[in-house]
Amino acid sequence: MRCTFSVMVLVLLNLSLGLPLHAESVAEKMANGAVRAASVKLEWNRDSKPGRQLLQFALAVDPENENALLLQARLERGLSFEPRMLPDEGKEYIGFLKKVVKGTRSENRQLLVYKVIELLDPRDEDALLALTKAKNKGVDTSFDILLQSVTGGGSDKVVQSPEEKKGTEKTQSILADVVFERLSIYNQNPVGVINTMNKTLAKRGVIIFIEAKDVEAQVGYFDRQTGIPHYYSNARLETNIPDGDALRLQNVSASRALGRICRVFGLGYKIDGEKVIITEKDDPEVDKSLDYVLSAQELYEQLSSYRVEFITKYRGKSLDVSGEVTGLGKNFGRDYVHLADDRVRVILSQEVAESRLAEMKAKYAELQERYKQYPAGSPFPRRMRLHFSGTATCAGMRGGRVILKECTDFSWRTSFEGQ
Q1: How far is CA 364 from CA 329, 368, 387, in A?
Q2: Residues 7 and 130 in one domain
């Protein structure tokens, strides 16, 4: 099947594109461009899924391509290699691939090329339109399926790790388990906080890589002992954090911190084995575990406005909810947190570590004692409040309250009233 596809591309597309048969063939050009793009991604992260898919594509269209075979050999043997960037940020190569699409009759092969274009530029509108239209028609547009339609599935062994699923689950567990006492997200760029997180996560075998184009992250150096990349960037991204200020998180898990970072900067992240990759939010593989992100006050206001629609929209969905803590309690052996003047109840999971829960309770009790000494309206000192943010499942409403249950991942911080 591979040879058939390559011959077809060589004979038909060379002619349709006006290329002489003795020049670099279309198949060779497709493969060589994919190898160059793959080498850049794999040089930063040898387990990069987009990088390995690009290599897989190169070997499918041109199985004898020496550049692809050498890159495969070096990866399998752990040897070093020189990354070769595509000229003009890959625009010329993407334009070439679009010409290939026009000269290809097979819809599956057209979609495969569009999938490759998406790997190179997740924002390419032609690729997005073609893949979305196909998906809405019921076509499976996943890379592996599209590749199998032209190779018979023979190239899977090149890029897939037998431990990939196990590694991903382990990484998810580590991200939920590692808790940062303090993290600061500055308004310009996420590279600083990512560098900070990597120092801790690397001790557990997890490293965050940045592939999002807007961040313009570059590796200044790799730590010789841990292999951690230290990023730097001069890009300034738009956020709602005041200029020169920072969003300061306290007692936050790595998974929640990653979610917050991505929401602040309009990015996404995905887990590839034991690697975490910061990428564009429209990347089809980014984490989509949260259905909605909103404040406790917004949640209650929606309940007040339209109860039936509220139940239909939110019940059973995963929410990231935040708000000022207005009460802590226990009911039927389950701890809960009240938000938005007791109008939203977040029931904590029994899996929550007692130490984390005890810290939050102690801080809330401390602030309550301060309130007694300096009631509302006191000129001094400024009142402090406890701010809660957590992920939970909406169970609907009960007793006029919004009920969220099974909150396993949460963070809290203190702030002055009015902030």
Answers
A1: 11, 6, 10
A2: yes
| Helix and strand totals (H; E) in the chain | 16, 13
CATH code of the domain in which 356 resides: 2.40.50.140
- Work out the percent of the chain whose per-residue pLDDT is above 90: 21
The answer to whether residues 150 and 178 belong to one domain is no
As a residue count, the chain comes to 419
- When divided into structural domains, the chain yields a total of 3
**Contacts within 8 Å (CB) and 24+ apart, 34-38:** 34/58, 34/61, 34/68, 34/116, 35/65, 35/67, 35/68, 35/71, 35/84, 36/67, 36/84, 36/85, 36/86, 37/86, 37/90, 37/93, 37/119, 37/120, 38/71
Domain edge (last residue) among 280, 302, 336: 280
Which segments of 139-274 are extended strands (E)? 179-186, 207-210, 218-222, 229-232, 246-253, 267-272
Q: What count of other Cβ atoms lies within 10 Å of the Cβ of residue 94?
A: 20
Structural domain for 63, as ranges = 2-159
- Six-digit token string for 303: 């309940």
DSSP track, 374-412? S-TT-SSS--EEEEEEEEEEEEEEETTEEEEEEEEEEEE
Find out whether 265 and 258 touch, Cβ atoms under 8 Å. Answer: no
Q: What digits encode the pLDDT tens for the residues 2-40?
A: 444 444 444 444 444 444 434 467 888 999 999 999 998
Q: 404: closest CA among 415, 412, 413, 392?
A: 392
Report phi then psi at 103, rounded to 5: -95, 5
Instruction: Give the separation between CA 319 and CA 344, rounded to whole angstroms.
Output: 12
Cis peptide before 50 (omega within 30 of 0): no
3-state secondary structure (DSSP) of residue 291: coil
Same domain, 151 and 16: yes
DSSP 10-46: IIIIHHHTT--TTSS-HHHHHHHHHHHHHHHHHHH-T
**Separation CA 321–CA 282 (nearest Å):** 22
pLDDT in tens, 292-316: 567 788 888 887 777 777 777 788 8
Domain membership of residue 186 (yes or no) is yes
Alpha carbon distance 210, 216 (integer Å): 9
Within 13 A of 102's CA, how many CA atoms are on the CB side?
A: 11
In the 3-class helix/strand/coil scheme, how is 148-176 assigned residue by residue? HHHHCCCCHHHHCCCCHHHHHHHHHHHHH
